[in-house]
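Lab manual, section 2.4: Encoding a predicted structure.

Procedure: take the sequence of the chain (67 residues), apply the prediction step described in section 2.3, and record the output as C-alpha cells. A sample record is shown.
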Amino acid sequence: MKNTNYPFAQELITDPQGNIRQVVLNFEDYQQLLEILEDEALYQAMTITIGETSMNLDEALKALEEE
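Recorded output:
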C-alpha cells in the first residue's frame, strides 16, 4: 500500500504478508488528528443534548448527586 493513500503517514510498517501493522506520524500531524477527534466527540455529545434544559454548575452537581 502506498503512503499516498495515507497523507499523514511518514512511514508504514508492515508484516511479512504486507498488512499494515504500524504507522509513523509527524508529532504535529498526530496532535492535529487528536484535535479533530476531540472536536468530533464534542459535536456528537452536543447533538445528543439538543432540546435538553441547560443547567448551571450547581444544578448539574446536585443532579449528579441525586443519581
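Check your result against the sample. The CA atoms of residues 33 and 39 lie 10 Å apart.
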